[in-house]
Amino acid sequence: MSSLLSGMSEFTHAVWLDLNQPARHIADSVGRHDPFRLFAIWDDRLRFREQLLRIARQNPELLDDVGLTRAQIDAETSKPFWQR
Q1: Is residue 82 part of a domain?
Q2: What is the pLDDT of residue 30?
Q3: CA–CA gap between residue 52 and residue 27 (Å, rounded)
Q4: What is the dihedral of CA 50, 55, 56, 61, to 10 degrees?
Q5: pTM above 0.85, yes or no
């Protein structure tokens, strides 16, 4: 039960951060009080991680150009969409 509550607390904190401290490019494009703001933030994050994973699988030689290690990409792409 405590791990469930801990996970919920982590999720709640992530939602609060995304609503109150979004990335600058999201904050500029979506109004502060727009009810779809959270979904836009999550969609942007999900698409970025999917693209990163696609690059890592299809063109692994590009990882050096991006400046990321395989471990960093695995860590980023394994996060849930709501986690920064």
Answers
A1: no
A2: 53
A3: 22
A4: -170
A5: no
